[in-house]
Amino acid sequence: MIEEELIEQLKSQIIESLSLEDVSPSDFDADTPLFVEGLGLDSIDAIELILLLEKKYGIKIEDPKQRREVLKSVRTMANLILNNKQHDIANK
Amino acid sequence: MIFINSIGSITPNKTIENGHFQCVEPLYKELINPIQLRRMSRILKMGLGASTICIQNLPESKIDAIIVGTGLACILDLEKFLFTVLEGNEQSLSPIPFINSTHNTVAAQIAFMHKITGYSNTFCGADSFDSALADAILLLNEDANQVLIGGIDEYSEYHFFMNSEEHDLKNAQFGEGAIFFILEKELKDNSFAQLIGVHSFLTKNKKCNNNLFEIIKTEITLFLKKYELELTDIEIFVSGKNGNCFSDDIYDILQRDFFPHSDTLQFKHLCGEYMTSTAFAMEHTARHLSNCTEKYALIYNHFNLVNHSIILMKTSK
Amino acid sequence: MTLLTNNTNRVFITGFGIISSIGCGESDTFKILQEKRTTFRKVTFLETALTQFPVAEVNKSNHDLTLLASLSDNEHYSRTFLLGIIAAQQAMQMAGLKTLEGIVAATTVGGIDLFERSYKKLIDSNYSAQNKQQIAFSLDISDCTEKIADYFGIRSNVSTISTACSSSANSLITGARMIRSGLVNKILAGGMDALSLFSLNGFNSLEILSDTGCRPFDQQRNGITIGEGAAFLVLESEKSAKNKKIYGEIVGYANRNETFHQTAPSPNGDGIAMTMKQALKIAEINPESIDYINAHGTGTLMNDLSEGNAIKTVFKENIPPISSTKGFTGHTLAAAGAIEAVLCLLSLKKQKLLPNLNLENVTQELSFNPVTEMKDAKINYILSNSIGFGGANSSLIIKKV
Known about the structure:
The complex is a heterotrimer. Chain B is α/β, with parallel strands linked by helices. Helix content of chain B is 33%, strand content 24%.
């Protein structure tokens, strides 16, 4: 999957898993900060996003520092997923 | 003196769906900030919605305390989280239903939304609204001026098991509701009624069954005596009759022996049977009294013949 | 609003009971405190997959608890009820009472442990409807309170409070206010909670369970350790307590909302700071009068920082000795406020400061060092804090009589 497609897919999944009823995918872009000043998400949402990565993409992140890096924006999340796939392919 | 100066409610208003009374809900987006709304379960929306209507109905309100009575609190969220765990999933659980199922969530969210930094308490169980009311009266006798108090409960599967064959609630239809009041010490143009007192008691012990009716009659008599009232002073008897042939007797007996001279008001045909139905009874009675002159009303209700409550009200004008 | 009333009956504590992971009753409990012994262990009685988190479990099976309470075996007794009745029996015995005028009990999960172990029977056609109701009723958390009320023949003023982790601080406050206003002369107040799959998984979903055992106020603290237990206090008016032994007096209390976030406290601790200030105001004392603070101190990053900052705000340069006793009892949720009130009564009685366990390096942001040894001290006033989800803050001030 190319990055742009993945970003659109992630946006819909974020909206769905966080029940952001009034937000549409066009309301934020790949680099909009997810927390505080951007989408205004909080620590409970962070746990939900970590669960999303785990359930939909099989990626588990325990390290709080790495979590903060990954959950910066939709693009950082997409990059992690893409890198992870390359790893998987390389390992196969 | 304590007055009911505002009411906000989300109730079934006779609506029956899927075999139980179901609340008619407003468009929450008009009442609650969508960012807050997104993580809320139905009961939370009902509680926040009803309390917001109540606050909006009393301009310039400055609330000192929030007290909530709830039988089973956010039972659907609790069931959702609990059943996921009981099905063997103890990993990767979403925390939202757990957070929401904390019993004081509604009170905490009201405080959060309306920035009320005063006292807050949440009572649970079948006479929780009555305990909450007693606490509100205590607060107003301390130094509170304005207390927001509510009774909330939602219908859930839990009732299915309580409604099993041998049970007392057979034949009664279950219900739900979220009803909030603002109580103040001041009589205002918009006062609905005066709240005089509340008393609840428990007859859990099987020994009580032999003389249950006598216990209830004694409690009502003693309660009225406290306010120097006679049975004949009660012009409106509000009866918690719910259609259950096994447990409705007491209402008929009280009407016959105690209140033959009174008008009888019923309310469960509008809201169904649920743990905090006395909040509905209080709204119903307050609205009725707002159109009367010089009348005392006494609400008597029991849940399951175990939890009994008496609320005494009077016209405010 | 300060909860002040024109009627100011004094609120005396004439009996108390406690059961937790560190023991059953006053002397067992004090012994473990003195020995600074940890009781955290791998979960034993609760069947769960979450065995990686140590817990503070009461070291008795439900059968043993039933015997301890002198009750006959009943498969429909929840562990929460059993813990509650044991603590209540002790308190009533100490106060020399058979019955009294009311009970205000706190719990977050009530009899949920009964539901968890028997819910499969709800769909078993061989199981009677009446038994199914017993199981279903366990989701009504007031069922435990009502059973205790029934045991002591209490009919009126029976209520159940549930405000998350500040629940039993609020049941003590409510009981105290009822005495103070003259509504009742003697009342039982406290809290109870058993370990349950629900709370263990709930706190795990929030990722705040410690896998090492909680370390309140430590720089390396990594979450809470869930405990179980119960504590009840008999509160009596001056008139009613005449000629009786008095273990302490509730002189100050406050209950305030922080309104900062749904679950998290504010970093500055504004909520708990205003709560402590108000409790001091009701007690009509200055911060300097407080001889010991029993902190909420759960061992999460946020709680200890927030509470610590609030203590700095209220006490400024004169911070009294502080400790959190959660390193002993774990976080007993709705029972915590009452359990800690009993530990405060022991501190008053023995005139000893209670130690904070598992503390190696104090949180850098805080300017005080919690007490780590049991020490002699002159103690007249103790402040105890409780902080719950949703910014539900409560403080109590107990005085030596």
